[in-house]
Specification:
heterodimer; A: about 325 residues; mainly alpha; MetI-like fold; about 0% strand; globular; B: about 350 residues; alpha/beta; eight-stranded mixed sheet; 12 strands; ABC transporter permease (chain A); transmembrane helix (chain A)
Chain lengths: ~325, ~350
């Protein structure tokens, strides 16, 4: 198994290479160059040309590509033109915010979705099942941005229970308990809404899984052995029903790590999704291409993670 | 002729109805059978005749929200009909073991073989973990698994169909139940494996002196393994008796047709005999008269107007038919033997 995982990781290298070429070409094809965005008053055309020369923008594309990749391998993703600081540091800072938000919303997702799906499936056709199913279908139908905005308006502006933006108030110093608590406080509302809005698919997968598995022959076998119902449910039905959830877990985790563009924009939460959008609009190419590359890497990683999780929970799947 | 202590299971006037819409329809309609110690009772019939429903009623595996069971299933002075689930859990697996048809579906894909066999022992014996592990290996070799230790650690998908069926059998016999119900145990298997599994069942029956109810649609299997046979049609037992009696002197038109539908090596006929029509569905079941009548249109309606009742044509050979004495089955050369 370890060999396979290593091989899968090695395969990711050519995949990432192709992605990087693609991203680089796309970035080159976009109108203007990084300096057009940073044009300042009083700068002459000659000064611009000198800067272009200095940044190597007059070199052929493959030399530019080689130096970009070379720097990247040293952990240098270049300079952000907007923030005037290293992209590595900028993404690193945003990644921390996104990571905690992602973790919190994932926990909320599973804490809500697993019991809800299990109850709906186990008591199929009951009032509880109808309530859960109807709610989850409504949530599935509501566009996320509408849901986020409504939550923000209601809980943020109207009731003022939660802050309406940012990741921490400026009044706290890093390292203090108040600072940690304030960060959590800023995360609660976005994490809650992001968690809730993603529950329907998990609930429905689990509900269908429980219903399907209850009628499986192996459950009948277990009953014919005289195993009590409670044990049959936990040991035979539930475990089999959780398989599809486990299959999605890898991608779920990495997609959340990539940051939600809409969520972070609505809540002005300084994470990677918001960084991506703002860099896009301000043509901060070094940041954009680094992020695209990172998202590509996360997708590949998510697939690998899903396969590894599946091979752990389902004995029929072995990655050899 | 029955010694009462030999009687294992006494099913009397069993009705099992399934809910379709608002009403219940009997898939098993007034069935009475007995199972004795040391015998294999075959229940034979077409698909839809209610034979599996009968089996599931005995071991109480129906979804009780949509099923209505009435009548008596007497075991050890206990009526299994309407028994509460907690008590029934103590009987299932311990006193009645069940072998299922599709051995892949019957095993949990996520559990090791050893664990699945052990589960029965956990709830019915006081064995500790070590004793249970030992018993699992014992059972695996009893059902003819070549490498018990390795098999106990493997998962169902790693075994062949025949091996899986042996595992299902090992689960059923783990607590040495006096009653074993085998629901079409060979249907999903190759012919060569079928014979091995039937041999295994016979060995188990001889060793443990259990009574086995063997459900099948294969008359060849019945002839080979069973001691007694009950022929089921449309939820009712239409004929029952020793395998010898029923095969030599089939009396009910349905039994005759079934026997004629078996492919025979020595037969000169090019075409196989086919019974016209199909078993009526639950909703279309006629409540009065012989249910097989519509499929034998050449018998005059007058021959089976009243509701058929059980007749004992020979000792321990019963047939439920109004016309068994009165008509000559036109395409049956065995009919001549009827007069003897």
């Amino acid at each position: 198994m370890w060999k396979t995982i290593l091989r899968r990781i090695l395969i990711m290298i050519p995949q990432l290479f192709l992605l990087s070429v693609l991203v680089f070409i796309l970035a080159k094809m976009m109108p203007g160059d990084p300096l057009s965005g940073s044009f300042q008053q009083g700068q002459s055309a000659a000064q611009m040309a000198a800067l272009r020369q200095q940044y190597g923008l007059n070199n052929p594309w493959y030399i530019q590509y080689a130096s970009w990749v070379g720097n990247m391998l040293h952990g240098d993703l270049g300079q952000s033109f907007v923030y005037k600081r290293s992209v590595t540091g900028l993404i690193g800072e945003r990644a921390v915010n996104t990571f905690w938000l992602a973790l919190m919303s994932t926990v909320i997702l599973y804490v809500i979705a697993i019991p809800a799906g299990v109850i709906a499936g186990r008591y199929e056709g009951s009032k509880r099942d109808s309530a859960i199913s109807v709610t989850s279908f409504i949530l599935m139908a509501v566009p996320p941005f509408v849901f986020y905005l409504l939550a923000l308006i209601f809980f943020g502006f109207f009731l003022q229970w939660f802050p309406t933006g940012g990741s921490v108030s400026s009044t706290y110093n890093p390292g203090t308990l108040g600072y940690v608590w304030d960060r959590i406080y800023h995360m609660i509302l976005p994490a809650l809404v992001a968690g809730i809005i993603t529950t329907p698919s998990t609930i429905q997968y689990l509900r269908t899984g429980v219903i399907d598995n209850t009628n499986q022959d192996f459950v009948r076998t277990a009953r014919s052995k005289g195993v009590p119902d409670r044990v049959i449910f936990n040991k035979h039905i539930l475990r089999n029903s959780l398989l599809p959830i486990a299959a999605f877990m890898g991608n779920q985790i990495t997609s959340l790590l990539g940051g939600s563009v809409i969520l972070e924009t609505v809540f002005s939460y300084p994470g990677m999704g918001q960084l991506f959008v703002s860099s896009m609009t301000s043509r901060d190419y070094p940041v954009v291409i680094s992020l695209v590359l990172l998202f590509g890497f996360l997708t590949l990683l998510g697939n690998l993670l899903s396969d590894i999780i599946m091979s752990i929970v389902d004995p029929r799947i072995r990655i050899e | 002729m029955d010694k009462p202590e030999d009687l294992l299971l006494d099913v009397q006037h069993l009705h099992t109805g399934f809910r379709l819409g608002d009403a219940f329809y009997d898939a098993v309609d007034d069935v009475s059978i007995t199972l004795r110690k040391d015998e294999i009772l075959a229940i034979v019939g077409e698909s839809g005749s209610g034979k599996s429903t009968l089996a599931t009623s005995i071991i109480g595996l129906h979804d009780m929200r949509n099923t209505k069971v009435t009548g008596d299933i007497l075991y050890n002075n206990l009526n299994l009909v309407g028994l509460n689930e907690t008590l029934f859990d103590r009987i299932r697996g311990k006193d009645i073991g069940m072998i299922f048809q599709d051995p892949l579906a019957a095993l949990n894909p996520l559990m090791r073989i050893g664990e699945q066999i052990e589960e029965t022992l956990v709830y019915h014996t006081k064995m500790n973990k070590e004793e249970r592990d030992k018993r699992v290996l014992e059972l695996l070799s009893q059902v003819g698994i070549p490498n018990p230790k390795r098999t106990a650690r493997s998962y169902p998908h790693e075994l062949s169909g025949g091996m899986r069926q042996r595992i299902v059998i090992a689960i059923a016999i783990a607590c040495k139940p006096p009653i074993i119900i085998a629901d079409e145990p060979t249907t999903a298997l190759d012919v060569t494996i079928q014979a091995q599994i039937l041999d295994l069942l016979e060995d188990i029956q001889r060793e443990m002196h259990s009574g086995i109810i063997l459900i099948t649609h294969d008359l060849g299997v019945v002839a080979e393994t069973a001691d007694r046979v009950a022929v089921m049609y449309a939820g009712q037992i239409v004929e029952s008796g020793t395998v010898m009696d029923v095969f030599k002197h089939p009396t009910h038109p349905y039994t005759r047709s079934l026997l004629r539908s078996m492919p025979q090596a020595e037969s000169d006929d090019d075409e196989l005999h086919v019974i016209q029509g199909v078993v009526p569905s639950l909703k279309n079941m006629q409540m009065k008269g012989c249910r097989f009548a519509p499929r034998i249109p050449w018998i005059p309606a007058s021959a089976h107007e009243e509701h058929p009742t059980m007749h004992e044509v020979a000792p321990d050979h019963f047939v439920q038919c109004t016309c068994y004495k009165d008509f000559y089955f036109p395409d049956d050369d065995q009919a001549a033997e009827k007069g003897e």
